[in-house]
Specification:
Elements lengths: L1 H56 L15 H9 L3 E6 L4 E2 L8 E6 L10 E11 L2 E10 L5 E4 L8 E9 L6 H9 L2 E8 L2 H4 L1 E8 L5 E4 L1 H9 L5 E3 L12 H12 L5 E16 L2 E14 L5 E13 L2 H23 L1
Parallel strand pairs: 2-8, 9-11, 9-12
Antiparallel strand pairs: 1-3, 3-6, 4-5, 4-7, 7-8, 9-10, 12-13, 13-14
Helix pairs in contact: 2-3, 5-7
């Protein structure tokens, strides 16, 4: 039994040492392998760092291709008219309403070097309708000829006014930039149509008042101004007493029509009054006048004109400032009647 026990102990001891020795070798081997793996990872990381650095120093660039934007029709039109110049060559003199224009409006179209441009569409606008004090315009499109010329005879004018005829390149459309470019090329000519009162004549019922607002006499200054403008058929109305001041226009028309019928074209009525008494001022004396003027067609009694005028003037004394104010006011009134009635 002892021998066997000893043998067992010896065998057990050998088995223990054998196992222990085997475990030690395995751990060392694993550590060595782990160390090799770590070194490889470090080397890989360093290589990666170098590659990243190279990428940063030499970045890859993308080629950008710029696509050129084609100009719009409006932009092409604006470019086209940049080199166009329009000029008024001639315009009719004063014409009387309800009479034809004796001469045309003429315009020329050229380039920047004043060479004639043919086949250019030009729009002309002109006064065509009058509604109260508002003037409405009509337009016509014309094409320049081989000499770059445009000629236009307006229709017979039916009302008197001072206005303009405008000429500009016919716009392609109503785009804001197109209209702006067209307006920069616009030129204007005077449109001057006077009333037929100059030929038909008129009778006046216009009274001057004094500073106390009492009627004094018929306005000499307005009558004189009409005559200075070439009117021969003008004078004070046959029914012209101060007692009729304030009567209706219809009453004045009928009373005068019974005497002169329509041998004179118009009956012009009104007053010239002081706004306030003449007063001293730095220039001497100040006169302030107001005048309401109305006109009737003697054929039918229709009111064809109505306007209020105000004016001030200074002078070295009472007489000079009042005389100056009445004369200047008369010019304003007659001018407005001749080109506004």
């Amino acid at each position: 039994m002892k021998v066997n026990l000893t043998l067992v102990l010896i065998i057990s001891s050998l088995f223990f040492f054998s196992c222990a020795s085997t475990k030690n070798v395995s751990v060392d081997s694993i550590e060595d392998k782990n160390e090799d793996i770590l070194i490889e990872e470090i080397n890989i990381t360093e290589e990666n760092q170098v590659n990243v650095s190279e990428i940063e120093e030499n970045p890859v660039t993308e080629e950008i291709v710029e696509v050129k934007k084609e100009p719009t029709e409006s932009e092409l039109f604006i470019q086209k008219i940049e080199n166009i110049n329009i000029k008024c060559v001639s315009a009719p003199s004063v014409v009387t309403k309800n009479r034809n224009f004796s001469t045309p409006y003429e315009f020329s179209v050229s380039d920047g070097e004043m060479n004639p441009l043919s086949q250019i569409s030009i729009t002309l606008t002109y006064p065509s309708i009058k509604s109260d004090d508002d003037i409405l315009f009509s337009s016509v499109e014309l094409i320049s000829d081989e000499n770059g010329k445009i000629s236009f005879v307006p229709p017979k004018p039916s009302f008197a006014c001072i206005s303009t005829v405008s000429a500009y390149p016919t716009p392609l459309n109503q785009d804001e930039e197109v209209i702006k470019a067209v307006n920069q090329k616009k030129v204007e000519a005077v449109w001057k149509v006077r009333s037929d009162v100059i030929n038909k004549g008129a009778v006046l019922f216009i009274w001057d008042f004094n500073e106390k607002n009492r009627p004094v006499n018929n306005s000499y200054e307005i009558l004189s101004e009409f005559r200075k403008r070439g009117m021969t058929m003008v004078g004070n109305a046959p029914v012209n007493d101060s007692e009729y001041i304030g009567k209706s226009l219809d009453f004045l028309y009928k009373e005068n029509y019974e005497i002169i019928e329509d041998s004179y074209g118009y009956l012009i009525c009104g007053t010239v009054k002081f706004v306030k008494p003449v007063e001293p001022c730095e220039e001497g004396y100040l006169c302030s006048l107001t005048s309401k003027i109305e006109a009737l067609d003697m054929k039918n009694g229709k009111k064809v004109f109505s306007k209020t005028f105000n004016h001030e003037a200074t002078g070295k004394n009472w007489n000079s400032c009042v005389s100056k104010c009445k004369t200047e006011l008369a010019k304003m009134i007659v001018e407005e009647i001749l080109f506004g009635m």
